[in-house]
């Protein structure tokens, strides 16, 4: 356990010295009767004529209550991708520092690092898609990205392995929980106070069914969140997104029903796949998709595409593998029928 951890020692020197842009909304607290400070159109357009809250205070208050995390430990961004990019920009010196990833995994970690001229050290996962802890502890990276449940494999990472990395890393450890709502495992947000170098990413794109609004969440100790707020664009989360997210948080029962249906359909899909002799392996999933190893995977992918059914070809990452998102019961039924027709 890291009882003492100097976050500021990890921050890039130019970021430490940075004076962040202060918007009009930064300089006034409270409810304004007349707003003449931001050069906005004064005529009401259902509040769309006004800039949104740059720190999403109402939304963070709701998320804080839901996740049992202090508001000061929450960052909201334009998808989790913004948080990934800002973490690399804030803490990694271009041409000097590196990030660590475990492949196969979500591709944006490396892309964001490449954009920022930061090296990516890639360690392959083991045969059962777990972290090779011995090799991981040999790498001295500024940021370590652990996707759990992992994309594209669907499995949770071993908790003890993640704990060991957190305890031994001299940098930040980011656990990406985009699919946590479909997992039986407890979120790492419950352990933020235990590990000051822990950052947890979550999203509204999956279980909440709001991919179009592009809202990602980062949870970390207040010092890390302060740094991210320092370098983010002034109004990085637009007003419409904030309003839609607030509405979604009021509809918790709908979200729970969606998760239940997706998990039920995942089990049904898995059983249907087991009946196909061409399916060589179905990888265990704690997400809203299945990764399957299947004969002539690339040909099947093309066949399904021609029928207007789009799955994800992951054969370059995992041999002969397709990643199949769990759809509606009818969509899943149609998929299985078309797979059977292809092999027949």
The CATH class label of the largest domain is Alpha Beta
Tertiary shape: globular
N-C termini distance: 56 Å
Residue runs with pLDDT of under 50 for 5 or more positions = none
CATH superfamily of the largest domain: Type I PLP-dependent aspartate aminotransferase-like (Major domain)
Question: Approximately what portion of the residues adopt beta-strand conformation?
Answer: 15-25%
Using only C-alpha atoms, the radius of gyration works out to 22 Å
Topology:
Layout: H1 13-17, H2 57-67, E1 74-77, H3 79-91, E2 98-103, H4 108-115, E3 119-124, H5 133-136, E4 143-147, H6 159-168, E5 172-176, E6 198-203, E7 216-219, H7 222-231, H8 239-250, H9 252-274, E8 279-282, E9 289-294, H10 297-306, E10 312-313, E11 321-325, H11 329-343
Helix pairs in contact: 2-8, 3-4
Distinctive features:
344 residues; alpha/beta; Aspartate Aminotransferase, domain 2; Aspartate Aminotransferase, domain 1; 11 helices
Describe this protein's structure:
This protein is 35% helix and 15% strand. It contains eleven helices and eleven strands. The strands form two sheets. It has a seven-stranded mixed sheet, with helices on both faces. Helix 3 (79-91) packs across helix 4. The model has no long low-confidence stretch (mean pLDDT 96).
Briefly summarize what is shown:
The chain is α/β, with parallel strands linked by helices.
């Amino acid at each position: 356990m890291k009882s003492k951890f100097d976050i500021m020692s990890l921050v890039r020197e130019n970021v430490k010295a940075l004076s962040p842009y202060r918007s009009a909304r930064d300089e006034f607290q409270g409810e304004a009767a007349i707003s003449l400070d931001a050069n906005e159109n004064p005529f009401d357009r259902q509040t769309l004529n006004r800039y949104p809250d740059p720190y999403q205070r109402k939304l963070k208050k709701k998320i804080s209550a839901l996740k049992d995390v202090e508001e000061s430990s929450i960052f909201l961004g334009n998808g989790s991708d913004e948080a990934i990019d800002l973490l690399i920009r804030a803490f990694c010196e271009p041409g000097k520092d590196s990030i660590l990833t475990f492949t196969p995994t979500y591709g944006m970690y490396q892309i964001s690092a490449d954009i920022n001229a930061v090296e990516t050290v890639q360690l392959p996962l083991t045969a059962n898609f777990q972290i090779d802890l011995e090799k991981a502890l040999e790498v001295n990276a500024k940021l370590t990205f652990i996707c759990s449940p992992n994309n594209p494999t669907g499995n949770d990472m071993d908790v003890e392995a993640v704990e060991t990395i957190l305890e031994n890393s001299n940098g930040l450890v980011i656990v990406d929980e985009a699919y946590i709502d479909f997992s039986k495992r407890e979120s790492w947000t419950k352990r933020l106070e235990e590990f000051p170098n822990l950052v947890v990413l979550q999203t509204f794109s999956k279980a909440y069914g709001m991919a179009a609004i592009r809202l990602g969440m980062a949870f970390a100790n207040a010092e890390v969140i302060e740094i991210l707020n320092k370098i983010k664009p002034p109004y990085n989360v637009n007003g419409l997104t904030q309003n839609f997210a607030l509405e979604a948080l009021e509809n918790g029962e709908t979200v729970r029903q969606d998760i239940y249906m997706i998990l039920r359909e995942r089990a049904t899909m898995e059983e249907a796949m087991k009946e196909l002799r061409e399916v060589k392996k179905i990888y265990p999933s704690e997400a809203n998709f299945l990764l399957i190893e299947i004969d002539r995977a690339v040909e099947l992918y093309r066949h399904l595409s021609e029928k207007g059914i789009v799955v994800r070809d992951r054969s370059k990452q995992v041999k002969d593998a397709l990643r199949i998102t769990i759809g509606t019961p009818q969509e899943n039924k149609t998929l299985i029928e078309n797979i059977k027709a292809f092999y027949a």
